[in-house]
Specification:
Layout: H1 2-5, H2 30-41, H3 44-57, H4 61-89, H5 95-122, H6 130-151, H7 157-175, H8 183-200, H9 209-232
Helix pairs in contact: 2-4, 2-9, 3-4, 3-9, 4-5, 5-6, 5-7, 5-9, 6-7, 8-9
The protein binds zinc ion.
Subcellular location: Membrane
Transmembrane segments: 34-52, 64-86, 106-122, 134-151, 158-176, 182-200, 212-234
InterPro entries: AdipoR/HlyIII-related
Length: 248
């Protein structure tokens, strides 16, 4: 734990502020604030393009449902986070900042569920067992996470991180029993999220830690979105023969 309790880099104030006490949020420097805005903002156009591609390639109702749920979630997470970090950059305090902070955190739970949603909805998951139930269970987990987070907002930060990790990883374990051709890319995205969580906890110890968390999370989200597009929204049905529950 010594690594977590000490400052890893010793740099001028411009690049990183002191680590926050346990009951207070870290105060990023101006350049860190700017990096936090940019590292989410640049992905908004990509998420819009990806969502419209999903809609455009939908040939049945389940695909359309996934396109809407997944598309809205990915656009929302980048947009909400960008707006929230912009309010921090502008040093705005008050109820709007507080509400945006809560929404930003809640959106992570929704986005985790939404990231599993295409695979659970469109592929031939087993009709019995844990994977079969995951389609609705993942939203229950996300809802419980949001309720917890709204009640104990910023109070038990490590516990909240453990919840994010559990909700993010546990449903993925159920997938190991089914044959998904793109599983490696999905796992690479998942590994980037987990690596990102390390930086999420490194405010005040590694400069730009939060921006690095954004960046790794955004790359993971892009890998997942592109994998959904190239695996579940193919124009040639023979590519995914036997994988899709609903024939295109
Ligand atoms: Zn952020």
């Amino acid at each position: 734990m010594a690594l977590l309790d000490s400052k890893i880099f010793h740099l001028p104030r411009k690049w990183m502020n002191e680590k926050a006490p346990p009951d207070r949020p870290y105060k990023p420097t101006t350049v860190e604030h700017a990096a936090n805005v940019i590292t989410n903002g640049i992905w908004i156009p990509f998420s819009i393009w990806g969502s419209f591609s999903l809609l455009h390639r939908s040939t049945n109702w389940p695909q359309l449902l996934v396109a809407v749920v997944y598309g809205v979630s990915i656009i929302s997470i980048f947009t909400l986070s960008t707006v929230f970090h912009y309010t921090l950059f502008c040093r705005r305090e008050g109820p709007i900042k507080e509400a945006l902070h809560r929404c930003d955190r809640a959106m992570i739970y929704i986005f985790i569920a939404a990231s599993y949603f295409p695979w659970l909805t469109l592929t031939r998951v087993p009709s019995e067992g844990l994977v079969a139930e995951m389609w609705w269970l993942i939203w229950v987990f996300a809802s419980l996470g949001i309720i917890y987070q709204q009640i104990y907002h910023e109070r038990f930060k490590w516990l909240e991180t453990i919840f994010y990790l559990t909700i993010g990883v546990a449903p993925g374990l159920a997938f190991l029993s089914i044959d998904i051709p793109s599983i490696f890319k999905i796992q690479v995205g998942g590994a980037l999220y987990i690596l990102g969580v390390f930086f999420f906890k490194m405010d005040g110890r590694i400069p730009f830690a939060h921006a690095i968390w954004h960046f790794l999370g955004a790359i993971a989200a892009c890998i997942h979105l592109l994998t959904v597009l190239e695996t579940l929204y193919v124009e040639d049905p023979s590519v995914t023969e036997g994988l899709l529950k609903f024939e295109p």
